[in-house]
Structures are given as C-alpha cells and as structure tokens.
Amino acid sequence: MTAAPYRRAPDVPSWPHCSGSLPGGAECRGRSVEPYALCLAHLPDAERAAHLAALRPGADLDHRGTRFTAELLGELLTALTGPSAHRPHIGQARFEEAVFHGAAVRFDQGRIDGDALFDGAEIAGDISFDQAEIGSRALFRQVRIGGDAGFDRMKVRRRAVYEGAEVGGDASFDRMRVDGRAVFDGMRVGRDAGFTGLQVGGHLSLDQVAIGGDGRFDRAKVGLSATFRGLTAGGRVSFLGVAFEGAAVVGPLVCAGEVTLSEAVFGAAMTMEAATAAVRCRRTRWASTAALRLRYAAVDLTDAVVECPLSVTARSRPFAVDGREPAEAGLSGAGVRITSLRGVDAAPLVLSGVDLTECLLAGTVHLDQLRLEGKYTFAAAPAGLRRRGIRPARWTPRRTLAEEHHWRAARGRAAADGWTPAPEGEEVQEPAALAPVYRQLRKAFEDGKHEPGAADFYYGEMEMRRHADDIPRAERSLLTAYWALSGYGQRASRTLGWLLAAMTVTVLAMMLWGLPRNDPKPRTTGTVAGRSITMTTDVPAPANPDGPYRGRLTTGRFEKSLRVVVNSVVFRSSGQNLTTAGTYTEMASRLTEPALLGLAVLAVRGRLKR
What we know:
Layout: H1 45-54, E1 61-62, E2 67-68, H2 70-79, E3 89-90, E4 93-94, E5 99-100, E6 105-106, E7 111-112, E8 116-117, E9 122-123, E10 127-128, E11 133-134, E12 138-139, E13 144-145, E14 149-150, E15 155-156, E16 160-161, E17 166-167, E18 171-172, E19 177-178, E20 182-183, E21 188-189, E22 193-194, E23 199-200, E24 204-205, E25 210-211, E26 215-216, E27 221-222, E28 226-228, E29 231-233, E30 237-238, E31 243-244, E32 248-260, E33 265-266, E34 270-280, E35 285-286, E36 290-295, E37 298-300, E38 305-306, E39 310-314, E40 337-340, E41 349-352, E42 355-356, E43 371-373, E44 377-380, E45 385-388, E46 391-394, E47 399-400, H3 402-411, H4 414-417, H5 431-447, H6 451-467, H7 473-486, H8 492-514, E48 523-529, E49 532-538, H9 549-552, H10 555-569, H11 580-608
Parallel strand pairs: 1-4, 2-5, 3-7, 4-8, 5-9, 6-10, 7-11, 8-12, 9-13, 10-14, 11-15, 12-16, 13-17, 14-18, 15-19, 16-20, 17-21, 18-22, 19-23, 20-24, 21-25, 22-26, 23-27, 24-28, 25-29, 26-30, 27-31, 28-32, 29-32, 30-32, 31-33, 32-34, 33-35, 34-36, 34-37, 35-38, 36-39, 37-40, 39-41, 41-43, ...
Antiparallel strand pairs: 44-47, 45-46, 48-49
Helix pairs in contact: 5-6, 6-7, 8-10, 8-11, 10-11
C-alpha cells in the first residue's frame, strides 16, 4: 500500500493554535497547551514550568507547529526522562510542522510507544534519532533538515516514511530496522546517504531519491519488494551484500561513479536500468530471472552465481523516468563493456550489444552455451605490417581473447607489436589454458550458425595449441607447417599464394628440365615372313633438353608447361611427353597443388557459410 502524500496545513491550521504572535506580526501556528491558549514556546515561564513539571515519562505530546529553541526542547525531553532512566520516553509524539532552530535535535535512544509524527517539520541544524524505538509509525514526510540526519539503528514497529524529505548534509540510516514498509520517495540528500544494514520487513521504496554524494545500501535486507526508480547519485552507489527476498526494481538510476552489487542476493525477479561508469557484480547471486539494462558501464561479473536467465543489454538511448530523460552528467564515452566472466556459469547468460574487448573469459563455466545477440565486439588482432626484429610481420585481422593479447604482449614488445598488455596485477594466462576457451567459443558460434566467428576462434585455438608447451615437438612442427601453408585452413589468401608459388616453380621446372628437347615422333619397323608382314611402332625416349637455360624459356614451352601444371592441380593428365625429371615433377605437383587448392576452397567456405 502506497503511503499517502503529506499536505501542509493551510494558513489557519486545523488544530487549536496559539494566540500569540511571531516577530514581524505573523500569527503563531503552534498547538496550544491545554488549558492555556498559548503554545509551549509562548507560555510564560511560570506556566511552562508548571506544565513541564506535570509531565511524566510515557506522556503523549502534541506540539504541532510549535517553534522550539535548543533550551526549550532540552527542557521538554528532560521532563520525559525518568530519574532511573537515561532516555526520554514518550507515548504519542506529534511534531508536524514544528520548527526547530538553534542546536541539534537529539532523540538518541529515545522511546516512543505510539507514532512519531514529524511531517512538514523544519530543522535548521542536525537531527539524531540514533537507537531510538518507535512503537508504531515514524512519519517524516516533507521534513526539512538543514544539517545532518542520523537514524542509525532506529527501530520502527510498523512503517517509516521519509517521502519528500530534504537533508542539507549527510543522511544516515545505518542498521535501521523497519518491521513494516519503508518509504523514502522523493527524498533529497545534499551529501552522502547511508542505509548500511537497513532491515525492512515489508516493502522498501526509494523512488525519485536524489543523493549529492555517495549512496550506501550495504548489507540491507528487505522482506518483500524493493524499488529504486529514478535514483540519482553524484558519487557511488553501493548495494554490497544486500538481500532482497522479493522482486527488486533498481532504476532508472543515474550514478556518476560505480554501482556495486557484489555479494548481493536477489531471491526473486530483478531488473536494473542504470547509466553509470561501472557495475561491479562479484559473487552476486541471482536466484531468479534478472535483466541488466545499462549505459556506459564496465561490468564485472567475476564469480557471480546465475541460477536463472540473466540478460545484460546495452541501451543506446537514455532511460526515461515519468516521461523525462534525466541528465547524465559526467557520463560519456564507450558503450557497455564486459570486463570479466571468470567463474560464471554462462549457460543462462545472454549478452546483447556489449563490448567484450577487455573481457576475461578463462575460467568461465559452460562457455560453449553463451548467447550473444545484437552488435558485439571482441578484441582484434593488430592489423597492418609490423616489424619483428629484422623481419616484417603482418597479423591478419581476427577476433581474439583479451587474454591472448596479454600473453603476446608479455612475450614481446607490446607497443611495437600492437598487443595490449595485461592490467596491473592481472595474471597472464598461458596458451595451454587459453586453447579450451577458444574451443568452447568456437562451439558456441557453430551452434549459433555463425561460421565466420567460429573460424576466428578455431584459428585462435590452433594458435594456442601451436604455442602450448604441453604438446610433443612433432605435433608442434606439424601445426607450424599447417599454419604456414594455410593459416589452419582459414586463410585463403595464404593458401592461394602458396599455390601460385608452387605452380610457378613447377612451370619453371617443366620448362627447364621436364619437357623433352623435341616431341618424339613414332617410328615403324617391319619384317617379311612369307606373305605376312608384322609392323612394330616404337616411340623413342624423350631426349633431355640441352643448351642454355635462357633458350629453353620460350613461349611454346611455357604454354605446354602451364597445361601440364593446370591439369595436375585438378588431378588430370595432360598427355604431354615428359622427361624423367618432368614425370617426377608432375607427380609431386599432382600431390601438393590439389591439396593447396582444397585448403583455399575450405577457407573461403568458412567465411561464406551461414
């Protein structure tokens, strides 16, 4: 049930009010003290002393609209403190629209058996209700506090409402306990606001709350639902270790600093919409479905426990609160970035439109079941021609892991090679640990029918296997040859280059040594035996070419050599007479060049297959 908004009394209050006047001629609004016609502040000293002397601990108070000085408030609370007690004891406390000026309002460790009603009160300095006990309701709607507000460890048996309250300094509700509902809608805090250890048995509502500094909700516990719609903070917002048993709606939230959800437990459905610089969710537990819709944030999900589907979505447009888009001061730059998924079960995880360039994936569980949607990016291999010592090196663009960047930068010159070094304090993973990560990502992309992406991760897997120190030397040599010839069957340009080179070499070999000096012509010999004649036709052995090499490089010999080589590539015989050297050259060509052609076709298919 939503708390009814407080409405300030009209110029003429509804309660019996004081007949005295204020400086400037204004009429006093203070509640008259029976049987007098004046409020406590305007009572003559003798009548005030008599009234205070008649009070006993546990008495009801009604001082609505009364203006209190520090001395007057002190006299009142002293009258309600028993000789053996060290704290004031009130039955029903009504201070709606009261004005407190001068020293701080302190009700520390006080006890109110009924309601504590401070709606519309104005407090020039600080207010403190630390360890106070409220037997029924605590209503501080539209209260104005010029200094700090302290409600640490306050206990409220029924409801606590701070709707529309304004605090000029810090507000602290640490370890406050509310058995019923707690409402802080529309509250404004000038500096930091602390709700550490807050316990609410019913619903918690902090809608449209503005905090000038940091907001701390660490270790808060809410029995039913919790809402934080329209929350804004000039610093950080921390939900460290909170436990929300009911549904939780966090946001739209605008936070200039970091939002911390680490070690939090969400027992029911949870939705978060936030524009913030970072979201830290280390060891956060989601026992039900959850959705994180974010802007600008760098998200850390290390060791998070995800029991039901969890979606992390990058939002391109600002969030709207009641049809208005709040200002996102201090927030700009890149989109949503996932920085770590280590220790997370990725099976129920859905990432949409996020940047995985810096994401640490080694140690992720069920990574092969990760779902990626929308426009997402991985770290890319450095593009262009770069120098490695005295020889140039060219990296082919492909999707890579951030951990591969860290490993390659650690073994070379990061600035020269273009690989990104690991952040300070981050352990560099070895290739043997990265190969399974690439393998699982490849399977995830294959299951999603994204063959080009799967091809990139297959390349990365083979690269890590080639560099791993736990495979035999012979296998590593084989992988190196496979990489050099075709980029593991993924680089068509490399394979076609080798094929063109092999064909060129074969054509030259044919022109220089493979084609005979002249094509041999058939020769017929015969013998006469009676009337019958037997004819035998012999083809002379091809004669090896002779003469200078330059003389063998003719157009005619090139055309014949090219025909032999092209037919060898497609496993056909050219029918050309060859020398012994040419025959073996053709045999070698028919063995290697079709294999290179097949690898090129395989690489092209991997990029075009859906």
